[in-house]
Specification:
With 277 residues, this protein is mostly helical. The protein is built from eleven helices and five strands; from the N terminus they run H-E-E-H-H-E-E-E-H-H-H-H-H-H-H-H. The longest helix is centred in the N-terminal third of the chain and has 30 residues, at 3-32. Bound molecules: zinc ion.
């Protein structure tokens, strides 16, 4: 040991203290941002206001659409999805939220998938739509995606991401630059938009969306077993090739079992016969 190395070691302290302050700040920020979600009845850690969520979703929408060939040119498809989506929103707790739902069919006829952006934009690809047999199955797909929006999964994800960035010390974005505050904001928004487009929700989020999907679809007067039909379509499709849907959603076989249980909980005496298939 010589005096040189001692000197180096002591010079680490200021950086370490700064790192600890950033980490502590990130943790405090994350855990102090509590919001109660009246639809899911859960407390969530979220750093975005609903207004920010809506703005962010609208900002990410063009890139999401471009990635799947833009909007479908088939007016009948668009009309159907719009009609089912509007019915799901108007007749469920989704109507009591501030979100601006918009249902769009994407031209992409290769990628079997559906997604939702924060704040309300919901998408289904032509490839998935054309595999569905009934209106109830369309409702099942849209109901699940509406679930992601009202449960604010993207916003939760972004709050966690921000925490991770803060903790890993790569949080330059989170630090205030007094010389140029607006550039920091733009960079942060660009980073958020980028991560939204390829966002993968966790298993718990998917389960929650399936639960909300069963609830919304049933409240809107659709037979929730349409969700089982969708699971069948997805597992059929996965035999020939892996649909994109499977890279962003859990295995349809496992989900089917859970959905069957959720439906039985909702209708212990059996699903009423008058629900729309
Ligand atoms: Zn999902």
């Amino acid at each position: 040991m010589n005096s040189n190395s001692m000197g180096r070691r002591s010079s680490i302290w200021p950086r370490l203290i700064i790192a600890l302050i950033i980490a502590g700040f990130s943790l405090i920020t994350y855990f102090s941002q509590n919001e109660f979600n009246p639809v899911t009845q859960e407390k969530q850690h979220i750093s975005l206001s609903t207004k920010d969520e809506i703005a962010l979703g609208l900002q990410a929408a063009p890139a999401m659409e471009a990635q799947h060939g833009g909007e479908s040119a088939n007016p009948a498809d668009q009309e159907l999805v719009d009609k089912v989506g509007k019915r799901l929103v108007a007749t469920t707790a989704a109507a009591s939220t501030p979100y601006k739902f918009k249902f769009t069919v994407l031209a992409d006829d290769k990628t079997i998938n559906a997604f939702a952006l924060p704040g309300g934009p919901v998408y289904i690809t032509s490839a998935l739509l054309h595999k569905l047999d009934t209106e109830g199955q369309v409702a099942a797909v849209l109901g699940h995606e509406i679930g992601h929006v009202v449960a604010r999964h993207s916003a939760e994800h972004l709050a966690k991401q921000k925490l991770t960035q803060g903790l890993s010390g790569a949080a330059g974005i989170a630090m205030y630059d007094p010389e140029n505050p607006s550039s920091r904001n733009n960079a942060a928004i660009a980073a958020m938009v980028g991560s939204l487009i390829n966002m993968k929700f966790g298993r718990q989020d998917e389960l929650e969306s399936d639960r909300l999907g069963v609830r919304f679809v049933s409240e809107a007067g659709y037979d929730p077993r349409g969700m089982l039909g969708v699971m069948k379509v997805l597992s059929e499709a996965s035999k020939s090739h892996t649909p994109e849907f499977l890279s962003t959603h859990p295995d349809p076989g496992n989900r089917g079992a859970v959905i069957t249980k959720l439906i039985a909980e909702r209708y212990p005496k059996g699903v009423p016969a008058d629900l729309k298939k």
